[in-house]
Amino acid sequence: QQQQQQTATGKVMTTLTQPVHAGVRQVLIADDQRMIVKMTERVLKRSGISCTTCTDGQQCVELAVLALKSEHEMHVPKYDAILVDIVMDKMYGDAVARTIRQAEDVMGVPAARRYVIVGVTGNSSFVDQESYMESGMDAVITKPVDYSKLAQRLAALVANRRGPKQ
User: Which of 6, 7, 81, 86 could form a disulfide with 93 if both were Cys (CB 3.0 to 4.6 A apart)?
Assistant: First the structure.
């Protein structure tokens, strides 16, 4: 459901009152550019998606692995998806993806419960994007990000990971 309000400048702003993308409840956002983190978080929250944010690759791995440990016992993923910038302090996004995938392997996380990891990069080279995918990412989005389609893209990736409902 949506609620529309007119701003002081006369523009109509649409706010979601219920989550549109029910399959995506929580996203971990990792980017060292705080403005991008804030913008991404704002867009996802308008779509009814909760966000946890961090500003470097090492912190992203720590948050993801800590969540893996607790959710492994409960069989419910804390994060439905992880958006990770490729070039960040302390650890690049491809290393983040590899490390998280290794932790999932060690813990025996079933494929349907693994994180959806999406790389975000300004590099549109096909060869580089292919190497990001080989590191364990499920998709790569190039900057500038089309925020109008971000929540829908995440929902499609999460639904694809989890497979058909039974």
Answer: 86
